[in-house]
């Protein structure tokens, strides 16, 4: 457990960083202690991100319009953010929930390893990992991804249940930010299922057309990745909002966190509707 929680920007005497240690390094040290499984999952993806970056200058193959190692790199960064944030938030659950936290952490870790395994294998082969059923082998790998995406979704549902069943440590605004952030993260994950249903992320055009720099979101058609991305990052945004409000307006923090979550959910819904109508977030003709 995080005593005098770092997520509330207070260090207990036990957790205080050394004079030469940065707050980020101290936070990562505490994360490794409270959830070594998800901490390790994040660090494994740091190593994979370094590998993808090292390969970029030497491998000029293009898949769906971008260099082949860009997608694995983006997934590494996404999984690092997910694993470390989830581990941090779940450490704020009381002791009664921690056995379940350890089990679901292993479920998430195994799911992420399987997904990244498929993504890196397919990148090395110079082809796509998602929605790829061009051969029996490609279809089998995509099915493996689908199974472990489902496993990870179940683990997320479990995390939502634990966060609502057991009150996390911290002030009310942070508690509701954590709970609502997990809930909207789950919504963002479920929206990703629409891409699997459509067997592509673009709506109104094939995948691989012109996209926003860095993000790749289509500038000619709707793109379901936009709502998926924003929804999943509620996992970071809403706990931070609740924490900040608890420090500034503690008496109204819970109510304002709910209001912020409602606006955030409305934004995710609006982005999803925009994509389903084939309208890009930013159109470039």
State the helical fraction: 55-70%
Largest sheet: number of strands, sense, barrel closure: 2 strands, antiparallel
| Lateral arrangement of strands in the main beta sheet | 1-2
Count of individual domains: 1
Counted by DSSP, the helix tally is: 9
Distance between the termini: 52 Å
- Rounded to an integer, what's the Rg over CA atoms? 20 Å
Low-confidence parts lasting 5 or more residues at pLDDT below 50? 3-14
* Order of SSEs: HHEEHHHHEEHHH
Beta-strand content estimate: under 5%
**Mean of all residue-level pLDDT scores:** 89
How many DSSP E strands? 4
Note the overall shape.
Answer: globular
Structural class estimated from helices and strands: mainly alpha
């Amino acid at each position: 457990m995080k005593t005098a929680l770092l997520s509330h920007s207070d260090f207990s005497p036990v957790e205080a960083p050394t004079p030469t240690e940065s707050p980020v390094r101290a936070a990562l040290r505490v994360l490794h202690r409270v959830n070594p499984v998800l901490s390790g999952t994040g660090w494994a993806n740091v190593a994979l991100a370094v590998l993808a970056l090292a390969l970029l200058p030497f491998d000029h193959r293009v898949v769906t319009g971008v260099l082949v190692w860009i997608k694995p790199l983006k997934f590494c960064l996404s999984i690092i953010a997910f694993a470390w944030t989830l581990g941090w938030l779940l450490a704020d659950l009381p002791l009664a929930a921690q056995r379940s936290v350890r089990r679901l952490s292993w479920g998430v870790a195994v799911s992420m390893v399987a997904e990244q395994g498929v993504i890196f294998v397919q990148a090395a082969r110079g082809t796509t990992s998602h929605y790829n059923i061009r051969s029996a082998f490609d279809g089998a790998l995509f099915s493996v991804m689908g199974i472990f995406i489902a496993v990870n979704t179940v683990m997320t549902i479990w995390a939502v249940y634990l966060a609502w069943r057991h009150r996390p440590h911290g002030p009310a605004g942070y508690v509701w930010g954590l709970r609502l952030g997990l809930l909207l993260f789950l919504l963002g994950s479920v929206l990703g299922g629409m891409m699997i249903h459509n067997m592509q992320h673009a709506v109104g055009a094939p995948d691989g057309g012109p996209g926003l720099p860095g993000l790749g979101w289509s500038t000619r058609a709707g793109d379901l990745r936009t709502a998926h991305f924003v929804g999943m990052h509620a996992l970071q945004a809403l706990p931070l909002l609740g924490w900040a409000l608890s420090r500034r307006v503690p008496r109204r923090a819970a109510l304002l966190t709910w209001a912020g979550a409602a606006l955030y959910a409305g934004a995710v819904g609006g982005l999803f509707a925009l994509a389903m109508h084939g309208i890009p977030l930013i159109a470039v003709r």
